[in-house]
Amino acid sequence: MDKYIKNKNIILGVAGGIAAYKSVELLRLLVKQGARVRVAMTSSACKFVGPLTFEALSGQKVCTDLFEGDDASIQHIKWADDADAVIIAPATANIIGKFANGIADDALSTLILAVTAPVLICPAMNTHMYENRAVQRNIDILEGDGYHIMEPGSGELACGTSGPGRMPEPEIILDRLICCLTPKDYKGKKVLVTAGPTREKIDPVRFISNPSSGKMGYAVARAAEHRGADVILVSGPVDIMPPLNVKVIHTESAKEMAASVLEHFKHSDVVIKTAAVSDYRTKKVAKQKIKKTKTAMSLDLQKNMDILKELGKKKKSQVLVGFAAETQDLKKNAEKKLKAKNLDIIAGNLVGSPNSGFGTDTNRVTLFLKGGNVKKLPEMEKDEVADILLDQVKKIEKKK
Ligand code: PMT
Fold first, then answer.
1. In this prediction, what percent of the chain has a pLDDT beyond 90?
2. 200, 208, 212, 222, best to mutate for ligand 1 pocket (most atoms within 8 Å of CB)
3. Residue 97 in contact with residue 134, Cβ under 8 Å?
4. Centroid of ligand 1 to alpha carbon of 273 (angstroms)
5. CATH number of 190-399
């Protein structure tokens, strides 16, 4: 659960568009994150999805009419006062027009005028409507007034046209909401992150690699972006969605990863290396597929550059963080790497145990700090590990 969403009061405003069905999934995601969600719907939204669906999932009465209920006269003010954030999804041309011009003629448009918390607006409509000058003018007004506006997705729309106008996927809206609510203590900082495995080719169809999924590194990159950093993510081959608003550089071998990391190192304030880099590569990559023989075979390997060690030698004011994947003697091995690579922190994780290390959504990490301090973290989501790591980096930066 994200700490900026858990136990927060979120209003989900649903206007009348075909994308209203996606808001049901958005509500489900918010509830899963521990938010208390109240839903307000326009009368046209109720024609696309019944309020009962939102009521069942939120566990709260849905607001569709300004004048219903016992405390009808003040209900919208109470909801607005209590709100930590508001999402309008889908936001139609009509509701955007009302918000931009201060028109309050239904429950949702009245409520929004009383809100002082951050508001995230997710436009969704026909492409020509979205590109219409009046709609664009209204979006500009809302942006100028401090509302957070999401770019709609592009593609084929329900009305048959193709272009911008599609409501972003619920996971993306949730990510942007978290970003809106996260304090920007990394603003102005350049953070370089590495993630995933490397692949060292043996022949055109085989390679040496490891099971790193990239989840740990992508979580660090996402958390740094949420906190306002300018993030470059150098990634090995992985199969997960890249974090939004982060520059991703795709690499394959350790050599390619080293080249990208060294290029961006000098402009970085913080470097966090979660990538599982191959220590060796084949001396020669066979041009054709190696054929099976009757005897055993061996591979001639040569050492790859230890990228992190190289950064440790070049380090000036940067905070340098490594990860150590260990199967035994975590403390001894991690502290040895901390020293040898001239790091500020090394996050040691035991791999091979359930719910920790490669491929899992959770990790069990101990932070070994330069100077001897040790912080053992319990098993937690990789997103949480990332945030705690960034807190620790911030403390080191402040001391420098
Ligand atoms: O990607 P996931 O599935 O989420 O899994 C996460 C993880 C287990 C890969 C991650 O948490 C982790 O432990 N990453 C480090 C894995 C590793 O290669 O550890 P190491 O002890 O071999 O290397 C120590 C440090 O040196 C690492 O920061 C590594 O990036 C760096 N290194 C290692 C070798 C090398 N040639 N160059 C390097 O820069």
1. 88
2. 212
3. yes
4. 7
5. 3.40.50.10300
